[in-house]
Amino acid sequence: MDVNIFTYVAIMLFAALVAGKIVKKMRLPNVTGYLVIGLLIGPNCIGILSTELLDVMNFVTELALGCIAFSIGAEFKISFFKKIGKAPIVIGVLEGLGAVVVVDVLMLVFGYNIEFALAMGAIASATAAASTLMIVKQYKAKGPVTNTLLPVVALDDAVALIAFGVSMAIANVVSSHGEAPIGKLLLDPVIEIGGGLLYGAVLGVIMVYAVKLYTGRGNRLAITIMMICICVGISDMVGFSSLLACMMLSMIFVNSSRYREKIYEPLERITPPIYMMFFIISGASLDITIITSVGVVGLIYVIGRVIGKMLGSSLGAKISKAPKVVSKWLGLTLVPQEGVAIGLATSAAKALPEYGTKIKTVVLCGVVVYELVGPVITKLALKKAGEITEKPNVTKTAKA
């Protein structure tokens, strides 16, 4: 008896729920558990999930990426940026670009192809907002580093999406090896990036009026999913960047509609199962047979990204005249990396199929490393900055 796709969906969600419980007891992020359990039940280990099934479930990956980009766009409220001032904006841009430049340069110095280097550099820009915010909330961190960190993390993934769009456009031009006409090579990046942003902006305006027309919660949720799907679908068909289009769709909507809270809250309630399956599929796609062969490039990626984040954030802090403690410690709080990086790796693998397996393997291994040590490093950096005070538990007996 053949197992149908509904049963496989149930298996993936069950595996994610079990993994979530296990890593919670180990005090590790859920995404680490999802990736590991996905690897175990994937075609390269136990084989419950086949390669053919992963191809069929590609629509889940596309939908998850659209939802991730849509969520990132929601952070770009004009009122928010007016409130925080220039320092977090300058630091957010420079720390993101710092990771891109350092990883790009190191990859090229060590002899890797420019297309591969551009993809890895762009992915290096992304930071894990969830892990960072978890540490801040858990230890009730307060101070100039924390105050700068939160808006920087909000900016970071948007910088990563833009850097990725530009990098992949250049990579596509380079990979053509002069086979395409020069006019097409120059026009394609403009269409991919500019077209994606313009298309997303148009959809954002349409969504503002659609949400006014339909007032029911169910209808508005349907509109949100519809807009994300049409944004991803048409973008893929005509060659726009679906990630930038979905981000722009959300940016226009969040700054133009007074109903934004009624849109993002319901969406957050239905996306966890989508993200669970996305991470399971990502883990299952990991080819463990080539892990040993990517040791050097993995090391370059992991270390180069941290160096770039530290240099970029320090430079940004000095330019914007932020406190010295921000310049010294902020970079180390940006080590964690998870969902957006995996999404970008998936998109890069699709755009550069000849490097696809290697890109995904390096990034997924890097995410596991970052998620294991990143939260610990973030906590230590905030503690060194004097913004976490761990008070010992005082028992009633001791007080007496």
Number of helices: 18
- The mean pLDDT is 82
Task: Tell how many strands the DSSP assignment holds.
Answer: 0
- Give the amount of beta strand, in percent: under 5%
Largest sheet properties: none
CA distance, first residue to last residue = 69 Å
The helix content, as a percent range, equals: over 70%
Give the CA-based shape.
Answer: globular
Sheet/helix structural class: mainly alpha
Order of helices and strands: HHHHHHHHHHHHHHHHHH
**Cα gyration radius (Å):** 21 Å
Low-confidence runs of at least 5 consecutive residues: 392-400
Task: Write a short abstract of this structure.
The chain is mostly helical and 400 residues long. Helix content is 77%, strand content 0%.
How would you explain this protein's 3D organization?
The protein has helices at 5-25, 30-41, 51-56, 58-73, 78-84, 86-109, 114-124, 129-138, 144-175, 182-213, 217-238, 242-256, 261-284, 295-319, 324-329, 339-351, 356-384, 396-399. Helix 6 (86-109) packs antiparallel against helix 14 and helix 11 (217-238) crosses helix 13. With 400 residues, it is mostly helical. It contains 18 helices and no strands. The protein starts with a helix and ends with a helix. Helices cover 77% and strands 0% of the residues.
Highlighted features:
400 residues; mainly alpha; 18 helices; globular; disordered C terminus
Topology overview:
Layout: H1 5-25, H2 30-41, H3 51-56, H4 58-73, H5 78-84, H6 86-109, H7 114-124, H8 129-138, H9 144-175, H10 182-213, H11 217-238, H12 242-256, H13 261-284, H14 295-319, H15 324-329, H16 339-351, H17 356-384, H18 396-399
